[in-house]
Amino acid sequence: MFAQCTHDPVITPASLTLCPGDSAVLTTQTADSYQWYRNGDPILGAINDSLLVVGSSDAGSVFKVLVTLDSCGEMSPNLSIGGIAQIAPLVYWYGNALFSDTLGIHFCQGEQAYLQLQPPHDTNIQWYADSLPIAGENDDTLFVSANGNYWVTASYALCPNSTSQPSYSTGIVFEPVTQPQIGWVDTLLCADPPGNSYQWYINGIPVFGGNDQCISATFFGGYYTVDVDYGSPCQETSDPYLLLGVPDLSALPSVAIWPNPATEMVNVSSATGALIGSWRMFDLSGREVGTGSSSSHTFSIGLNGVTAGTYLLMVAGHAPITLMVM
User: How far, in Å, CA of 28 to CA of 46, rounded?
Assistant: First the structure.
């Protein structure tokens, strides 16, 4: 029979939870000798009244200590050290993205793109762009307005000294936006640069038949805009072009037409004898009702199918002329 020891060793602190970057010291009572154990196995060299434990390797382990006093050894109760797992920060993106590829997430220039850090990372936040810290960007949400590779470092509130970073960065790419400009070409309003298709508007209302690069606008005042399809995911409506009235066409040569009014056919001749190229005819709503070209200084236009009314005849390089159809 062996007598029970008169001492009952315990470990201080009685409970402990460690973050990955934390450390702590376990202690026990003063005695003659000691041997610390980790998960049931003696720790080599751990023969003092204290033991240093670190979160990165000791969290989740069970410790005890054998304390010998007056040649009597007594084992302490077990101490289980809790741990807080450290995971890489998770970042979501928000915005009207076009697509994503190996370069990153693509947006049209001017679109709003956001990166948002997800819980539980909420402390010591620092955003980076192309490996450089972004000054003042320490919130969970980052507004992105320039191309780059973005990432963030952060901690848990429970583990402020354990900062982690993601294993990846988020690439953001802004695609250039193509916007047509409106200008005058001879007596026509034209969109530049040219595209695949067109839709013109006046005061926000679609122009009937306004589906060409150029339209006649010499007899309508208002705000003109145009949508042009460039086959690009990033394209915008033109800025409004304010037309206050008919431009000064006095410097352009004129054409002669006869008969006027006309019924079945009208003849057109250049007053200067110059060769006539393309021509177009519009009704008063701006709808194109005829188009063609000529390599002579005189040509004829058939009016079959043209309803009675007033029309504007536009001959390239010449002042427009009004035609009455009976």
Answer: 13
Residue ranges and CATH numbers for the domains of the chain are 16-83 (2.60.40.10), 91-175 (2.60.40.10), 181-243 (no CATH), 255-325 (2.60.40.3080)
The amino acid occupying position 181 is Q
Peptide bond into 120 cis (omega under 30): yes
Condensed to tens digits (0 to 9), the pLDDT of residues 191-232 reads 999 999 999 888 888 877 789 999 876 556 678 899 999 998
Instruction: Indicate left, alpha or beta for 244 from its phi (over 0: left) and psi (-120 to 50: alpha).
Output: alpha
Cα distance from N-terminal residue to C-terminal residue, the chain: 134
Q: In what order do the strands lie in the sheet with 132-133?
A: 99-101, 104-108, 170-175, 148-156, 121-129, 132-133
Strands of 222-229's sheet, edge to edge?
Answer: 205-206, 197-202, 222-229, 241-243
**Interstrand relation of 41-42 and 33-38 (parallel, antiparallel or unpaired):** antiparallel
> 191: how many CB neighbours lie within 10 A of its CB?
23
